[in-house]
Amino acid sequence: MTAPTEALNHVGGKFVTGLSTFDKASPVDGRPAVTVHEAGPELVDAAVTAARKALNGSWGSSTVSERTALLRRVADRIEARFDEFVAAEVRDTGKPETLVRELDVARAAMNFRSFADTVAATGMDSFLTDLTDGRQALNYAVAKPLGVVAVIVPWNLPLLLLTWKVAPALACGNAVVVKPSEETPSTATLLAEVMAEAGVPDGVYNVVHGFGPGSAGEALTTHPGVDGVTFTGESATGSAIMRAVAPRVRPVSFELGGKNAAVVFADTDLDRTVAGLSRSVFLNTGQVCLSTERVYVERPLFDDLAAGLVEAAGKLRLGRPDDPATTTGPLISHKHREKVRSYLDLAVEEGATVLTGGGVPDLGPGLAGGSWIEPTLWTGVDNTARVVREEVFGPVAALIPFDSEEEAVRLANDTDYGLAAAVWTQNLERGHRVAQAMRVGMSWVNTWYLRDLRSPFGGAGLSGIGREGGRHSLHFYTQPTNVCVQL
Ligand code: NAD
After folding, report:
1. Which of 5, 115, 314, 420 could lock onto 171 through a cystine, CB 3.0 to 4.6 A?
2. Ligand 1 centroid to 255 CA: how many Å?
3. DSSP letters of 308-353?
4. Are residues 320 and 448 both part of a single domain?
5. Number of domains present in the structure of the chain
């Protein structure tokens, strides 16, 4: 199955070309993969206008049961076209096909079903209020959609993160204008076909392609017709978007960067911990916001854990997405590889010992044009090093020893970010205690990236604003109106 080679915008139910086009290269071999139609400000305006028109039409008076049925049909249609979504995602990202099947596309369908279930089971507040004179009043809140929602997403889990926002937005009756990353335009475009097949009215789901500043992203966030912005991406971009919406005082929901810690106690099950850390450091070539880049290890276990992780890194297989033996794909682009490489150089300048990796692998002439990087582990750096403080967003981690629980908590929390943490220990009492002491949105004990979609997802500090997931998403995408009736 081949993915489309052109990514068109989708506005008011129609696929439309852009003012200009740009080519997006394959991360696997550097060859042109997709021609993307960039939306100018006029097209962004047309998309926002189409979304408003849909809200003012039948979509605006749709019922929860109509919308949940629709969301389930979208999930069914994603599954019916599963292989096309896989092919499109693989072409844009270069990820191993097995990973895209298990994680990205499967989760996309799950996102629609999960939010259909959640919205069907979620009510609003009602209070019978006692007045001082003995009378009563009935207060009840009515859930209304936020309105036209801008959905701006990154390239690392393109369809998964897009549907994580689009599904609850539609469940709540909003109309969306989505701006996928310039690096991964294809699955958002394919989803527009699926929306139409499922019966989503024209204008409810619009797609505009392009970059951020000076392009579709900026045109969308500064558009006066946008009622709220939900964004996943870098913290610095979140800050720019906040400034863009500030004059119009629009709500934002931000899922931003991380510099996530794992805390490993000496009593942990070593094999299980090595396997878990190998996933949390290297999955998706380290390009997961939840990835571990700092591993704090209780000193007696330090050498054994380091040896175990080096061995695990040695078993990773970098290669073509369609090779079932491939565990690890390339980074998303040459631009991103240059960033990651600069951190590999910086680590050495900062005094790191490179346990494994540290450079660009030679995978033969067929893959020489791709943006490959070696999985890398460092020791010999501490919390003062920039490579321990700044998000690299690659398959890298620094291993740092600690001597007490108090020190481990202090080191793990010594960061401007606050997205996720993982604690590895056989002592469950300590596991709970340390997990709760982490200044993050999500803490795991003896696992990582195990998600219940009803639980809150988000970050503290530079890692975000607000929480999404389950009813937390519904809060953002809903504008409650309270009605007070004196009885
Ligand atoms: P990015 O911030 O560069 O881009 C994200 C999106 O924002 C893209 O669609 C981009 O075109 C757009 N954009 C960029 N500048 C903009 C602007 N000024 N106005 C409007 N739109 C703009 O992020 P990225 O490089 O695509 O993704 C990697 C980052 O995303 C990492 O920092 C990672 O930690 C973060 N991330 C966070 C989560 C989370 O849930 N917390 C999940 C995945 C990724």
Report:
1. 115
2. 9
3. HHHHHHHT--B--TT-TT--B---S-HHHHHHHHHHHHHHHHTT-E
4. yes
5. 2
Residue 310's domain spans which residues? 260-453
The enclosing H or E element of 41 equals helix 41-56
State the catalytic residue, choosing from 289, 293, 298, 468: 289
Is there a single domain that holds both residue 367 and residue 422? yes
Residue 464 alpha carbon to ligand 1 centre in Å = 12
Q: Are 480 and 443 in a shared domain?
A: no
Which CATH number covers residue 102? 3.40.605.10
210 and 295 housed in the same domain: no
Distance 161 CA to ligand 1 centre (A): 11
- Kindly state whether residues 49 and 124 are assigned to the same domain: yes
Q: pTM of the full predicted structure?
A: 0.97
CA distance 42 to 92: 27
pLDDT of residue 2: 52
Calculate mean pLDDT across residues 65-79. 98
Looking up residue 331, the CATH number of its domain turns out to be 3.40.309.10
The token pair that represents 391 in the structure block: 């998000």
Active site residue 97: no
| Ligand 1 closest atom vs CA 391 | 32
- Collapsing DSSP to helix, strand or coil, 153 comes out as coil
Residue having the nearest C-alpha atom to atom 16 of ligand 1:
212
Residue 465 has pLDDT above 90, yes or no: yes
- One domain, residues 337 and 410: yes
Q: Which two tokens stand for residue 441?
A: 């949105």
Nearest atom within ligand 1 for CA of residue 289: 34
**Given the residues 218, 255, 293, 298, the one annotated as active site:** 255
Q: Does 395 lie in the same domain as 357? A: yes
Cβ distance 412 to 263 under 8 Å? yes
Atom of ligand 1 nearest to the CA of 258: 34
Active site residue 407: no
Measured from the Cα of 220, ligand 1's closest atom is 20
Q: In whole numbers, what is the pLDDT of the chain averaged over residues?
A: 97
Query: Ligand 1 pocket: which residues have CB below 6 Å?
Result: 152-156, 161, 179, 181-182, 211-213, 217-218, 221, 232-234, 237, 240-241, 255-258, 289, 391, 393, 419, 459, 463-464
As a whole-number percent, the residues of the chain with pLDDT over 90 amount to 99
Examine the domain organization and report whether 128 and 231 are in the same domain: yes
pLDDT in tens, 332-374: 999 999 999 999 999 999 999 999 999 999 999 999 999 999 9
26-49: b or e for each residue (b if 16 or more CB lie within 10 Å)?
Answer: bbbbbeebbebbbbbbebbbbbbb
- Top mutation candidate among 24, 182, 288, 289 for ligand 1, by most atoms within 8 Å of CB: 289
